[in-house]
Amino acid sequence: MSTxxxxxxxxxxxxxCKRRGLIFQSSEIYGGxxxxxxxGPLGAELKRNVKELWWKSMTRLREDIxxxxxxxxxHPDIWKASGHVDTFSDPMSTCRACKKLVRSDQVWDMLETxxxxxxxxxxxxxxxxxxxxxxxxxxxxxxxxxxxxxxxKDPEGVLATLAKRSSEATSVQATFEILSTAAxxxxxxxxxxxxxxxxxxPRPFNLMFKTYVGPAATEDDIAYLRPETAQAIFVQFKNVxxxxxxxxxxxxxxxxxxxxxxxxxxxxxxxxxxxxxxxLEFFIKPDEVIEAQHxxxxxxxxxxxxxxxxxxxxxxxxxxYWVEERFRWYDSIGLKRSSLEEYWQKPDELAHYARATVDxxxxxxFGTQELExxxxxxxxxxxxxxKFSGKSMEYFDQEANVKYVPHVxxxxxxxxRLILALICEAYEEEEVTDDKGQKxxxxxxxxxxxxxxxxxxxxxxxxxxxxxxxxxxxxRDLLRQHMNVFYDETGAIGRRYRRQDxxxxxxxxxxDFDSIGENGPELQDTVTLRHRDxxxxxxxxxxxxxxxxxxxxx
Length: 554
Known about the structure:
Layout lengths: L5 H14 L3 E3 L11 E3 L1 H20 L4 E3 L8 H6 L2 H4 L1 E6 L6 E3 L3 H4 L4 H8 L8 H9 L1 H5 L4 H4 L1 H10 L7 H8 L23 E4 L3 E3 L9 E3 L5 H6 L1 H8 L5 E10 L14 E11 L2 H8 L20 H18 L7 E5 L11 E9 L2 E12 L1 H10 L5 E3 L4 E3 L2 E8 H12 E7 L5 E7 L10 E5 L5 H14 L5 E3 L5 H11 L3 E5 L14 E6 L5 E5 H12 L1
Parallel strand pairs: 3-9, 19-20, 19-21
Antiparallel strand pairs: 1-2, 4-5, 4-6, 7-8, 9-10, 10-16, 11-12, 12-13, 13-16, 14-15, 17-18, 21-22, 22-23
């Protein structure tokens, strides 16, 4: 990954995404809609490739997982049973000045990215304030950027307060809070990231989007856009069990849209209001059933998770198995383990029903953030739906001759976050030398061939030579039945290569005069195959193109 400054790198990535048709802001011609994003031609292909690879890895290549596609709107009692109606909320504060809502637990993360806050941090190294610098800034740029910040509204008074409370200014954050506080005594204030004003005390804000089912918009008709795809899997557990001839341990997976009314969507597509999830609920036997059957459960100290699944695995081994499976899959699509981190949630961070949760984090330019969580959820969800619906969620295990409510391991990944991670991982600017010895900057997306939106670009060397064009079109028609290709006959060949580099196309094929036998029969029906990453070129027979390319993308 590039070592260029993070903000600059992220800005360039966002610009490339629009310029090359990866990602557009939703409703842009109407001013956009914050937290919603559209995928352009290249982005749609990239996203489809990733989802198909995940689906194939979960269902086609395994015999113990089946798929589901459920509705976005479900019975509202589902969300009461799952706890979302009562507890699915974020702590929110309102700015007393600009009236904007801010997630209270994200204020300081937001203040890491706004320029005015960066200026104040630079003037308060290690909490020691540059009083003259702060006074000058407050009376000039501060007036325009954050007119409601206490320091800007009353520079001399707030700096006097800072001197009086200097013993409390033990860090940059503490100094920040003093500069945001109008009163010389009393509690310190946290500034609004938008205008610098004072924030109210946090209060819970439910993240689910409400809607109504039917013609009457009454309280009895309220429904919700699902905030996750998992609950549909739990409520269809018995139907899948009875129709698929599966037995525990087995999984049900789903890819689908989810919606959360994020008050402060940010970091491009990372935190959005409409997004897609790829989730697996893998149902396993309770440990006590394993112990009754096999005498004891296998332990991690035995190295069990590194082997193929065994009948005596308990929840801990199954959990670690899925953590390692997810890391292996990310590596297979181009996210190296060195770009990822494994974070085990501490006991006080766990959801009340979770026995353990591992977050897989990616090192984005704006910080290391979660891509996927792998949670051991116990039997909480099935038990809740059994309680609220009155329908049994018990499974009769013929091998153990006992009934039980299965426990579950849940790997849950965000598709949009993964797409953004793949783009960030692939993005590079490198200095290269052209054929004339001139240095230039090449922008390239090093997508793994499996996920690349376009697999191969196909070019006739000259568009005004019908025999070159005809041969190139024949190759296009041969390959397009098996993969996404792009035909381009406009511009210098070097410029066409650069366009495909920016699109992340791993291979380019050029039909030249050798291809049509003008320079002798020995090279007839061969083409120049150019490799994106190394920029090396080789002669390949047209008859060998398809098998070679398929070997790279499958």
